[in-house]
Amino acid sequence: MIPQSFIQDLLNRVDIVDVVGRYVQLKKGGANYMGLCPFHNEKSPSFTVSPTKQFYHCFGCGAHGTAIGFLIEYSGLGFVEAVKDLAQGVGMIVPEQDKLPPAQRAEVQAKSMALSEAMMKASDYYRQELRGAQNAIGYLKNRGLTGEIAARFGLGYAPDGWDNLRTVFSDYDAPALVEAGLVIDRSEEEGGGRKRYDRFRDRIMFPIRNTKGQVIGFGGRVLESGEPKYLNSPETPLFQKGLELYGLFEARQAIREAGYVLVTEGYMDVVALAQLGFPQAVATLGTACTSTHVQKLLRQTDHVIFSFDGDAAGRRAARRALEACLPYAGDDKTLKYLFLPAEHDPDSYVREFGAQAFEQQVRDAMPLSQFLLKEVTQDNDLSNPEGRARAQFEAKPLLQAMPPSGLRLQIVRGLAQMTQTTPAEIEALFELAQPVARTRVAPPRTKRTPPMGLERQMIRLLVAHPALAAGVDQAAIDAVAQLSPDNAAMLTQLLEACWALGDNAHFAALAEQLKSAAADFDSLIGEIAAEVESEPEAARLELAGAIRQTKMQVLKAEMERLASTGLSTEEARNRYRELMQQQEQLRRQAEVEATSR
Fold first, then answer.
1. DSSP per-residue codes, 89-117
2. Where would I find the CHC2-type zinc fingers in this protein (predicted)?
């Protein structure tokens, strides 16, 4: 786990305007910067970035967060990945994530930079070579691709010849070229006169980018006949094909606009579909769909459609995609499977039948529930007990992989009906975690009642200016507890978070900490993010006033209670006088603060 102190230090060092500005065109507007929101479609800017709060907020869709949150939402990075990305930019090392000795860590970082630089130089070279390669240009034109789409995806050409990269790299024998997968070393035992040569020769080059836009690998396609038709970069420290998706970097905005992502089987499908009006397509890299692929896709959208050829190989690929999706199949996710006729891929289908026909295919894609039930029943005779039992046997590991949800219950009910059993019997037979059909679902835990009045004012000021928490004493907490125990718990949680951040606490760091720990504060954070920042001194005086009024309310209530008893005992009279003295002290404090304004 990354220490909160590191997160705070990181957010102090990065500038959110620079971070967001890499992806969104921002213009100065008063104290803030404005731009078109990258998270929803809009024609006039409602997206603001505050350099003082180090926070972004969209008045249109309500999206808000810190620099870390922006990278997570925009780039689809995980929390640790986003922190690492920002830390690298300001020269910080994420603690507990890299336990190598300093010298070894520096060596690893230097090697990584050398590989990245090599890939970038090779990509630039291949793009430059495409401009003069008439055979490669002719091939792309025959596939219906324009120069604009080729430039968008950074397509290039690796010319024929054994060592063309020698003209790019002054040290052609550098180990980094082998480690990056750009050249191949042949051992002396293998014989032959050439020990080192280019991996990619006479191929159209598809650069593979990570979510930050860095080239981490290549896919190369032969122009005519030849094997393999597609040649991919090998596994390297930069590139693991089971973790990456081709075209995801280019498709992110289109995925948000379309509301779904289309997962295809090849590079050319992605590029051709972008040319034909479907830029929300990505592709697996010559490997089966993995759980990491699914996680990356679901960070971009809740609606994923897998497109496969209708042949046997396509069915096998779809089955693997189904298995990868099951742990993430919840009630708020839409996962579908599109099967085209065996003679077509998405590119050829759109060209023959048109974009509208393909859009209809997308709309008619098979939902996960239907595909799962079809997979376990299509080869079994449900008219006899053996066939029904076999269908249940095949369904068991699939349903066990799913989280408890309404969707799983619907599938259980469908399977029960098809196999002449009951949902409760299926859940018992499959030993499903948290069975839904035979136990009453517990009602969701209600959120705390939103704070009102003075309590809300205090909490609001502390969220906006967490450094003010140093001036809140236990008596203030006790006073709030007497008026509203629920709000006191919320205030205590907030104060503990502020105190943990220390004297240099600021709004962005607190918002990042509360985001993962307390959903109760989210709407309040959004409100504060949308407002002009208040002056710290004015906020301090306002907080002191709210605390004083809260204490006065508690004193008044106790005094009224004592007065109602007639102050018949000495103890009651002494307590009443003590409360009057405390009340007078609070009045004097108010007078002093009033004169100091």
1. HTT---TTT--S-HHHHHHHHHHHHHHHH
2. 37-61
Which pair of structure tokens corresponds to residue 434?
Answer: 């948290």
Task: Please give the structure tokens belonging to residue 378.
Answer: 């299509």
Percentages (nearest 5) of helix, strand, coil residues in the chain = 55, 10, 35
User: CA 532 to CA 529: how far, in whole Å?
Assistant: 8
Pairing of strands 47-50, 55-58: antiparallel
CA 459/CA 90 separation, integer angstroms: 33
How far, in Å, CA of 200 to CA of 190, rounded? 20
In this structure, are strands 215-222 and 230-232 parallel, antiparallel, or unpaired?
Answer: antiparallel
Give per-residue burial for 334-356: e unless 16+ CB within 10 Å, then b.
Answer: ebbbbbbeeebbbbebbeeeeee
pTM for the complete prediction?
Answer: 0.66
First to last CA, the chain: 45
What are 283's strand-pairing partners?
Answer: 246, 264
pLDDT reading at 462 higher than 60: yes
Residue spans of the domains in the chain: they are 4-89, 102-232, 248-364, 374-430, 453-596
Q: What is the DSSP letter of 443?
A: P
As a whole number of angstroms, the distance between CA 156 and CA 491 comes to: 58
Residue 326 DSSP symbol:
G
32-35 vs 215-222, strand pairing mode: unpaired
User: Taking the domain 453-596, which CATH number applies?
Assistant: 1.10.860
User: Domain 102-232's class?
Assistant: alpha beta
The answer to whether the beta carbons of residues 130 and 137 sit under 8 Å apart is yes
pLDDT digits (tens, 9 = 90+) for 383-403: 999 999 999 999 999 999 998
User: Would you say domain 4-89 falls under CATH 3.90.580.10?
Assistant: yes
CATH 3.40.1360.10 fits 248-364, yes or no: yes
For 129-150, what is each residue's pLDDT tens digit?
Answer: 999 999 999 999 998 999 999 9
